[in-house]
Structures are given as C-alpha cells and as structure tokens.
Amino acid sequence: MVKLRAARPGEAEELTALVLRSKAYWGYDAAFLAACAPELRIPAGEVADRRIVVAEDAAGGRVLGLASLEGAPPVARLGLLFVEPGAIGRGVGRRLYRDALRRAAELGFRRLLIDADPYAAGFYRAMGALGPPESRAAGGEDEPPAGLARFEAAPAPLADWARAWTGGGPAVHVGNVAEYNAQFADASLDREQRAAHHYACLAAFYSPWPGALVLPGAVPPGWIERVGRVLEWEGVEVYDGLADGGPGLPPDTGLSPSAGLSDAVRARPALAGRLTSAGLPLVPWGRTAAFARLAGLRWRPRELRYESKSAAHGLFGRILADGGHPRILLPGQWPAPTRRAAARLLAARAEAGESTVLKSEHGVGGSGTTVVTPDRVRAAGGARAVLRALPRGPLLVEEYVSGPAGLDEARDLTYDGFVDEAGRVHEVGGAVMDVAGSGYRGATVGPGVVPAWAEEPLLAFGEAVGRELSAAGYRGWFDVDFVADGAGRLAPTETNLRLTGPSIAFMVAARLDSLRGAGHFVRIADRVGLGARLPGAALDELCETLERGCAELGAVFLPAIPTGAFDPAPWLGVLVAAHSREVLDAAEALVRAEALAVGAGFTEGQPTEWPGTSVSESAGDGGASVT
Fold first, then answer.
1. 549, 540 in Cβ contact below 8 A?
2. pTM of structure
3. Distance (Å, whole) CA 240 – CA 258
4. E strand or H helix at 63, and its extent?
C-alpha cells in the first residue's frame, strides 16, 4: 500500500537522485542525463514552494515517487512527476497525479499544464489529460521545452450537488427498481418486472462513489471490479441475488418475480444491520414503504402522488398560472376513464387532423405512451381498433406538440434535481434524451448539451417544480421531462420521482470530472444490441475490447447493465464519456458496431458460462464480494 505526504526539505538530495534514476529508466544516454541534471535538481529551499508530495511504501517508509504542483492560480504546472523504476506500473504515478489534480482544484487552479516526456504521453492520456492537438495553447503561455509534449487538465472538485446528494463520500445503493414500479400497479408496466431487475444494475451509479451495492439478482463476476477500476472506487461491497427471479435467467426457468428487495434485505438481519449501521447514506432507485422500513424513514405515500402523469400535469398548470414562465407551453390533457371515452376523444382529434398522445397514468421509459396520428387511426379502421392494441386501464388523452423542423435539433430534454431532507432544492442540470417514437433509449449530459435557447426556461421551470415537490413533502431525486416545439418553447410532459437514466449519466460525469478534469460529456445508452447471447468469457472479452478501443479514441467505456447480455434477445446497457461531442459520438458508434459484430461467432441459444442465478455465499446471509 502507498501513502502520500508532503516532502521534507531534508529529502531534497534523495528526491533529486530518484528523479534522475526515473529519467534514466527510459534509456537516455549519460550525456543527455547530465544535460538534464541541473533542471531536474530539487534545491532544499524549493521543496515547500513547489508543493512537492512524495509517495512512500506504507509498510517500509521507502519513497517510491514524487510530484510537484507549481505556480499561482489560475494556472498550475505539474513540474515533476517521477516514480522509482522498481515501482513503475504499480499505480504510484496514478496516485500522485490524481492527488496533484485534487490539490489543484482545492487551491483554485482552473488549468493544470503538463510538459511530458514522450515516454509518459500514454500515461497522461490514460489519466484523462488533453494532449496535442486537443490541449489549448491560449493564454500566451510559453511553449513546452524541446522534445516534450504539452498536456492540460481542468482541475475540478466534486460538484456541489454531488456533495449535497450523499455528503461527498460513499453510500449504500439499493437497486429496488422493481419494488418501486410495483407500487403503482399500472397495466402498462411489465408484470414480471424482468427489465426492472436488469435496470437494478444501474445501482452501481446511484452516487459518484458506492460503498455497497444491494441487488435483487446475481451479476457477472468481475463486473464491479471492471467498473471500479475505471472510476477508481475502492472497497465496494456487492450483495447480489437477494430477491427471487434475478436477471439473466433463461426463459424456461419460469421467472418468479419479486419486487421486495428492501424486505429481502430486512429478512437477513445480519446484512440489514451491516448496511444500516455503517454510517453511510442509503440511496434507493426510488422511495417505497419497504425501503422506508429498511432505512428507518417516515413513510408518506402521498409524497409520490406527482409520479402520476395527470397529477403532474395539474402541478404544471398551477405553476404556469402566474405567468412567470413565458417559454413553457402546457399541452392540453383530458382524462378518459373508459375506453369508450378515449375512443371518442381520439376520433374527434383525428377527424380534426390532430395527432394525439395516449398515456397511462404510470409508465417507465415510454411504456404506456403512444403517439397516434390521423393516418394511423384511418389505417387501423378507427379509434377503437387503435385502442384495442394498447394496455388495459384508464388513459390520458394529450395534445401532441410538434417538434423543431431540423432533424438534428434537440427534441426531448430533461431537468434533473433533488430535494434534500431539509427541503432544499438542488439543481443538477439539463440533459438531452434519445427518444424513438415514445420510447426512451438514452441520454447525454455535458457542457452545452442543452441548446442555449432552452437552458434558462428549462432550469427555471425545473426548479419551480422542485419547490412544489418540496412543499408537498417529497424528498429525493426528481426529473421533469420536456419536448421542444417548433417555436422555441418547451412543453413539460411528466415528472419522475426517482433516479433516472440521465441521473446515472450525471453521477458518472461528476466522478470523472473530479478524477480526470472538468468538461466530460457522458452518454448512457440503455440497450446496445448484441448479435447473440454471449458466454460470460466472451462478454468479458468484448468489454476489454471496447475499453481499449474507446481509450484509443480518448473516451471512457463502462458496461452499465451487463445482465441484459444473457437475455433471449441479448443487449448491453453502456456508458461512454469523452471531453468532446465528436469523440463521444465516435465512441458510441464503435461500441454499437463491435457489440453487433461479436455475436457473429456464437449461435442463438448457446449456453452461457454465467447463468446469473446463484447467490454469493461468502458473507453468510448477505452474499457479498468485495473489490
């Protein structure tokens, strides 16, 4: 184990010798090293001024490396970063670089410049620094010395909202997606909740840093280690397979779904005690009565009333009644308690040439929402014929809002925020969603993603909704979804009183910004199709390939929902991140192409090496693995 500490002036001579040994590791000749020696020498009087930190072996106290953070805000320089030759490849340089970036953020530096030896260029790229030609040459800085390459990073502390969300430290993530959905008993929701068990994998990202994951079904061995290696998590405990009907089961097993993950944890007293007594916040996908019992919270079911689409519509109307949001358009909405009433409304609108949105009260990812054009009504032979193909239960008939004329213009936007336990509303930001028809497929977050014209009205209205939710007693994450019309206005369509796909992208962006420098774009793609069901080893190999391929582009790849790869119609949920939209798009294209191509060597129905049905036995009644 390595620990970091401030260097001491009395170590200056020893540190200089380490620097020269590290430089010599790359095969430079004696004449070159002699020429470099005066520049690399560390005078005792400069140790404090150059903010030198050393990494030492925690057991023996031997110094293994050093890094300096030089200059005055707003621009810092990583003047030195050298590792003892025998320790190269053991993560010492990574620890020193991350520490320098963290210190730079704390000291108010906005830019960190790095003049790197050519042999170290790959290291700095892997750390997320931007190098030629990405790094900026603005500000009139001097050119790097001959033979060195200029890199740059933007130091950033963990976002304020992320600190407020879980205190800035690790949290216990409870993947109770099915449990949350089951509260609403909506016919549009999948009764077996198979997809919900898969989406519980997103529990890995319920905050920027998990301390423990609690999952209903088994997950592939090594998945969290892979993700944790990229996001530099330490000590993550995984408790999986806790509820019946976990993900990845073949269809012939007769999946018996269980929506009660929180109660399944409470039924294991040792595990429940471990999770609730660790002093870490418990973060669910969404609040339920069972989760409230587990977490020791007061349960007020009316807090979730605005998860209903009609109740949310009424809330939007009340906010807009004061006229304070001129660029927000509220579409008309009419409840249809019977199919006969829905048919009459739909037929009248089709006759008038109007498209219509049909909604159930509750739905997930666009389930229960259907856009119906007049042509569709005519082709089906009438409104009743259209309705017969939809889920049973009451429907909402809503005015369709026509979108922008340009196909590349943002159409589906969302605001994310949360209400803390004191009732304060915290803005997280806006995202652009990928929606096909009425089905959600993913989202992108990052600087400038939301069009400039939409940012102010989106944030202002989202905050107004948050204040109303707070006044109604709601505590937790929420979002407000919008569609853009062709006249520069936003139409709010629903609220979600839970975590969401965009929220996962925000969590990962916050973590990457603090680790690698500010300005990450992050995209979550819910379902990347695979060419076939893959054996577990083949899935691992695919993830390795995608990780390497994205890194070569300057991007980050994370498998977000691995269990879908073992479904009869296999898919993979992924996250990609980059410092530019162009690289992000290229990374997504690479992921989709490789994911389809890898299935060519496997036949449909081939047995998997990881059945995804067992509960780990290593932690008594909990089932845990630790990374």
1. no
2. 0.92
3. 14
4. strand 63-67
User: Whose CA is closest to 135, among 581, 580, 587?
Assistant: 580
Q: What is the DSSP letter of 352?
A: T
Kind of pairing, strands 171-174 and 282-284? parallel
Contact yes or no for 562/190 (Cβ under 8 A): no
Q: Which residues pair with 66 in a beta bridge?
A: 54, 82
Distance CA 326, CA 457 (A): 8
Q: How many residues make up the chain in this entry?
A: 627
Residue 616 burial (C-beta neighbours within 10 Å; 0-12, 13-18, 19+) = middle
Q: What's the token pair of residue 506?
A: 């925000």
Which residue pairs from 135-140 have beta carbons closer than 8 angstroms and sit at least 24 positions apart in sequence? 139/75, 139/111
End-to-end Cα spacing for the chain: 15
Burial of 189 (0-12, 13-18, 19+ CB in 10 A): buried
| Rounded Cα distance, 365 and 440, in Å | 5
The one-character DSSP state at 205 is G
DSSP label at 78?
-
Integer angstrom CA distances of residue 341 from 360, 386, 390, 401, 532: 14, 13, 15, 22, 44
Q: In this structure, what token pair is assigned to residue 113? A: 């410049």
What is the C-alpha to C-alpha distance for residues 216 and 179, in angstroms, rounded to an integer?
10
Strands across the sheet containing 476-484:
490-496, 476-484, 412-419, 425-436, 439-445, 521-529, 571-578, 556-561
Grouping H, G, I as helix, E, B as strand and the rest as coil, residue 617 is coil
Structure tokens belonging to residue 321: 């009644």
Residues 56, 62, 67, 69, CA torsion sign: positive
Name the CA dihedral angle for 317, 298, 416, 332, rounded to a multiple of 10 degrees. -20
**Cα(75)–Cα(64) distance, rounded to whole angstroms?**
27
Closest residue by Cα to residue 625 from 249, 320, 263, 219: 219
Q: What is the pLDDT of residues 273-321, one digit of tens each?
A: 999 998 999 999 999 999 999 999 999 889 999 999 999 999 999 999 9
> What is the rounded distance in angstroms from the CA atom of residue 27 to the CA atom of residue 571?
47
- Going by their DSSP bridges, the two strands 356-359 and 571-578 should be labelled as unpaired
Q: What does the DSSP assignment read for 458-505?
A: HHHHHHHHHHHHHHTT--EEEEEEEEE-TTS-EEEEEEESS--HHHHH
Distance set, CA 118 to CA 66, 235, 517 (Å): 19, 34, 21
Element (H, E) at 182: helix 177-182
Q: Do 129 and 115 meet the contact criterion of CB atoms below 8 Å apart?
A: no
Give residue-wise pLDDT tens across range 330-367: 999 999 988 889 999 999 999 999 999 998 888 776 67
What HEC string does 118-136 produce?
HHHHHHHHHCCCECCCCCC
pLDDT tens digits, one per residue of 42-97: 999 999 999 999 999 988 889 999 999 999 999 999 999 999 999 999 999 999 99
- Strands (DSSP E) contained in 337-466 are 356-359, 369-372, 395-399, 412-419, 425-436, 439-445
What is the radius of gyration, based on Cα positions, of the chain? 27
- What type of residue is 90? R
Instruction: For residues 173 and 477, give the distance between their C-alpha atoms in angstroms, rounded to a whole number.
Output: 14
Q: Which amino acid is at 102?
A: R
| SS3 state at 350 | helix
